[in-house]
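Pasting two entries for a bug report.
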Amino acid sequence: MTDTTINPVKNLAGTIVAPSSKSYSQRMLIASLLSEGRSVISNPLYSEDTIATLRAIETLGAKVRISGSKWIVYGSLPLKNKPEPIDCGESGATLRFILPVCALARGSSSLTFSKSLEKRPILPLLQSLQDLGVRTETREFCSKPEILVKGGGIRGGKTSIPGDISSQFISGLLFACPLASLDTIIRLNSPLESTSYVEMTKEVLENHNIFITISDNFDQFKIKSDQKYTPNNHIVPGDFSSAAFMLAAAAITNSNITIKNLESSTLQGDKTILNILKSMGVNVGIENNQVIIAGHKGFLNPIDLDARNIPDLVPICSVLACYANGTSKIHDAHRLR
């Protein structure tokens, strides 16, 4: 094991590049799997979660070639089945995205995952898949939790699902249902939280020529059947959730830093960190896909933060609140329990 020593400094200075978005990297991999032909994903994030998604699409038949900072994905339809299970590791997004997609394979697929994911809900997604004609079975494989998905396609039809447990349920269905036999209507029986993540899924789908109709208040999704994914070349944008930690560090140390690879036009909900910092009195500039923080002296302003659509920002906003002159409130974050 390597020891790392970090010495304290009073201020930060310099320019860094934000890491690529995990959420976009995973969505682009799934869409590329379902597209017959060659898709290129440039500047993807290498992490345990994205590698779990990469491993999953390869198990379902995708051919992936890594060339420098590019993933070159050759899609595979119909999806293949292999004897070994798809190991989702500790990636909840991989599990929830791939589960519906596995129903499109001709035979059965099994998905295993870590014990830690057992604590995260999955039953609502299994119930919706049952509504749409997909049979699943939960069991254990080599002391690991396992879900068996009976392939043969998705019938389609109507289903309802909670919107306030995980937006990943909805994204998983949006990936698979365009290839169903019948049109699909998904109704939410509670308000959708983390709306931006569903918008990101919709954006990636449209880049692959798949179209979804979403109601204005995001409580109903209409998906035409027998659509066809087409290959697409992607550039993965920088990740605002990861960058938020360095932005906050600059804010509380009266520092001047520049973070590149952050697109102001992104659909990422965690881009809200810029408005949060501004409301706390931090000087924030945005230009040419980079964010510039010009130091802040003294205490920050307190905040009243609705976290229902930005749960990933709660930890760093809690830190910022410690440096505010007054009481801050962070609410509607019950999904983080």
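Entry 2 (this is the one that rendered wrong in the viewer):
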Amino acid sequence: MRIISLIILTLLVGTPALAAVELQPNHPERYTVVPGDTLWGIAGKFLKDPWRWPELWKRNDQIKNPHLIYPGDVMVLTFNAKGEAELHALRSKRLTVKLSPAIFTEPIQEAITTIPPKAIQPFLSQPLVVDDKTLSEAGYVTVGVEDEIILGKYSNFYARGIKGKPGDLFNIFRPGNKFKHPETGELLGLEAIYLGEARLLVAGDPAKLEVTQSRKEIMPTDRMLPTPEESPLPRYHPRSPESDIRGYILSVLGGVSETGSTSIVAISLGKRDGLKQGHVLNILRHAGTHKDPVTKKTYSLPDEITGQLLVFRIFERVSYGFILEAIRPVKPMDTVRTP
């Protein structure tokens, strides 16, 4: 089985006190994990707020890493002497191998992930947001070797501002929309539209490259940045932010006007706001204002919860989130905030 990243669940020290965890009214007493399950999906079978899974999780010291969940594990819901719900994992011996001379057992399959890896993996190394400085320092396409101005896969072309050695890979992107804060108008960054990838053939000025991947047509002035080394899927720890933060959905990846579950969105929060990978945020519909039919005066409508997202990639002032669930369409200008 292809190796995928594992999930480690941890309770955060210093997290503000929360109300008691609510169980789903039709929750199972036991659930057997199967291949293809995600942590979020399993948590949703037991809890109304799946991100609060760690509060019910109880360690099993006979398992080497009790925080990881594997296909074949049986999740059991019990209640302690105080009447508080607890979740335990029972691991089948036939699914494990003994690690001698240690007393622990280790599963022969791979642990399940929080969300489907294929949903976000392509977006972990692509440039999604750039600032003015990065844009000004990026290399750029000048012309095809055969003087063509529209390039595709296997096209050879010249570029300037390229530093590297033959064999190095470069992401090709085109500056897109400007991300501005809906309230302050502050420029948060420039959207980077991913076009493809190229391999450096001959270093110099101009440098000669070959397009190895092409998602869209590539043209002169399109920008280039070194492709980061491929890394495993990060170990996300689903949890609420430590403080009450609020932001907006800036755009839906792909440029559509509305979207739903399993889609990716850009939000107006980043590192400077204390956002971290794995933070879960509520999505609220921005209802706006309404004219009172009696007084004829305009008043503000309350925001309504639409769904939840998990933050998976963070920049200084902008981040990207994966929509875990949505009960109505999600649109730009919808609010995101701490659950």
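Dev reply: Rendering is fixed now. As a check, the viewer should reflect this: Residues 1-17, 94-108 have pLDDT under 50 and may be disordered.
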